[in-house]
Every structure is written in C-alpha cells, then in structure tokens.
Amino acid sequence: MNKIDCFLAYTGQKKTREMSLLLNANALVNNVFVISPDTVEIPGAETLVVEQPLSTKTMQLIAKKSSAIYSLLALRGTPLELGQFAISRLFQVAENTRAAMVYADYREVKNGAETAHPVIDYQKGSLRDDFNFGPVQFYRSDVLKSFSDDTFQFAGYYALRLHAARLGELVRVPEFLFTMVETDTRKSGEKQFDYVSSSAREKQIEMEKACTSHLKKIGAFLSPPFKEVNFSEFEFPVEVSVIIPVRNRVKTIKDAVESVLMQKTDFWFNLIVVDNYSTDGTTGMLEKYAAEGMLVHLVPERKDLGIGGCWNEGIFHEKCGRFAVQLDSDDLYSSENTLQTIVDKFHEEKCAMVIGSYLMTNFALEEIPPGLIDHKEWTPENGSNNALRINGLGAPRAFFTPVLREIKVPNVSYGEDYAVGLAISRTYKIGRIYEPVYLCRRWEDNTDASLDIAKQNIHNLYKDRIRTIELLARIKQKGKD
Known about the structure:
The chain has 481 residues and is α/β, with parallel strands linked by helices.
C-alpha cells in the first residue's frame, strides 16, 4: 500500500510536525521528507537541507530520495491542511489517468477568512511560470527521475513541470482537496507587475531560458530573420491614426484626446475614437471635438463589440492611416513627441509592430510603483519566444495597418492586444522603444485593478488558450520550414 513519498516545505515546528504525523498515519504514504534551509527535527520525517527549494538541485534531490510510485510535493512554504481523503483522491486520479502530474482546487485563508480558490485546467499554452497549481502537486516519480535540465537556482521547478507536460497530461481535479494560508494579500492589480521589478531580473532570465529550452524541444522555437514589411506598398489618407476605444470614461477621455492633439510630427495624423455606446457624458464631449474637426467620432452599428471589436471598426475605417497607434481611454501620451518616436522606429527597423514603454501613475498623473515598465526582457533574438511565457507585451502598441487588417483583433475586452502581438511576432519583427512614451493611469475604475478569483481565472484561461493556439501555429509553421 505504500505508494507515495511526501515532500513538504518547512512551515514552522508545530504545523510541520502535525502534517508529518497526519501523512504518516495514511496507509498510502511511504516516507515523509521536510525541505528546509536548516536542519530541523520532525517526528516521522527526514530533513533535506536545501538552499533554494525550487532549484534544479532540489528537484533532483527529491527524485533521488523518492522510492515510491508517486511523489507529493508541497513546496510553497505556507501552512496546509488536508481535505477529506485528499491523498486517496490524488492517488485515485493518478492511477486512473496515468497523468504525469495531478493537482487540485483548494481553499485559502486570507486575513482570517476562508474562501474557495478554484484553479484552471492546464493547456499546452499554459507556459506562464506563475501558473497556479495550488499548494500540492502529485507527480509520477518516474517523471521526476527522468528530469535533467540546466542547473537553475530559481527555475528548477518550472523546468520540471514543463518536462512533465512533455511526458504526459497535467490533470486538474476540480475538487477542493486542501486548505492553504495565503500570505500575499495584495490586490490583483498590485501583483501584476512583480515580474518587472529589478529584484526579479535574475529569476526572469532563468525562467526565459527554461521556457526557450521547452519550445525548442517541442518544435515551436522561432529565430530571426523575420519578414520585413514594405511601407510604400499601400496608399493611406494619413500616415498615422490613433485609435481609442471608449465606453463611459468621461473622467479621463478629455486628457487622452488632448494628449493626441498636442502631438508634433513631420507627417499627417488623425484620431479615431470608437465610442461603444457611452451613457455617462463621454459621447457629448466627443461630439464637440468632432464638430470642430479634431477627431473622427465613430459609433459602431454593432452592439456586440468588445475592445477588440472596436479596434476592428477603427482599423477598417476609410480614414485609418498607414500606422494604427493604441491609446486607452484612461491613459495619455507622455510628451508631444510620442507619435514621431513610434513612426521613426517603424522605419528604422522595418517592423510590423512597435511597442513602447510606459510610466505607471495615479489618477493625478503622479508616478507610482513600480514606475517605468520597459519590458527590457525583450530581445530581438528571443523576444518572440519569451512572449509566450509572459502575460503582456507592453504599451503603447502600434501596428502597420495592412498586417493588422489581415490578422484582425479578437472581439474581446481582455487579452486582445496580447493575441495580436503573439500572432505578429510569429512572422514579423517587433520594434521596441525603451524610454517612456506613455502614461498608464491606475485608478479604481481600471478593469484589472482588483479582480476576484473567478475573473482572474477567466482571464488566465483565455490567455492560456491564446498561447495554445499560437503554440500550435508555430509548430505547424516550423514543420513547413
């Protein structure tokens, strides 16, 4: 009956001891090991002293120590409780599916309150290094023992689960099998930019290396040179159109519009505002600008449009320019030179898309942490591959209009820009601007300021699906090369 070896991160003497005794009382459990930076004495458990719990070295030590068919890994380092027959359920599902790894939904205790925390199903495109598998992962031990990768300090576990995904399915059990204490109680919008902090740079480099290795092994890795574009092939009424989709942003739309009208360029440009049936006074404000000839105020005939659908209305409009440049209705350009800087980059690099850098501000346009978001992790050599790992590409985004018209924008209001960026990066070069040309305003009405778990899961599931579609397209493309 002893089918499972358990590996637990040390969570304090009392909690770790309780969990060790509980696991040892289970007939399915073979051995219990405690992962700790220091030697600790836990009844019924062997201590494994490691410096980095998620390193390749630790993963290989776990594999070496495991002598059972399955290995249970709980490495988050936070107090954990088992649900009813949780271990038996993981074992049952693993036996029935022969999955490389099994994981489950859980309950979390945050600020003393317990809530349900469902996770999402794993896909081929679930390449985010922060994919949430919950507090426990249940591996086939042969998967662990076959793992051999670069010696990572931070990305060992990430490389392991990519390895597991190449060997078999990662199966989610949609049942709440554990309860975990959540120590990071920040809102979703506050966690969003953790990966760009300077302290995370070394970790991010490792994660990129692990993901790139995975893409090479599955035949999805892209390398330069990419296809160049011919900007003189088509005629347009103006060189640039700034496109702003908007619905009910009477507090911010004036600032956005004025930041466009102040632009100084050596080419003609216009502003197309796609007003998606605003009801708060936004429409009246835009009508005044349009009456003075300052913008094209476009109200779609369709009433089923998200942000992406509004973008399609703008780029297929007869007055759309050679380049279509994004501006959200909450935000504004940081100087009068933003459009000129973007167009110069298009011609300098002969690329189909340009992405700038932005400064995070509060509603009053005062800089707030994390400040500058410049996505310097993007490199000309590997940016199109690393794009599959991260959750966004930056702003402002600008497109060579014929390419965007060919691809089209998904008619959704989240992730539409990411989907287009991935599709473009498969074939064309993307130019980057690393100085701030955009102000990203954070306030309570931002769509991602504070999302509940259900909404976060919907967003993550969609982006993973987008990545899956793109991954399969790249594998298909590489097969034809």
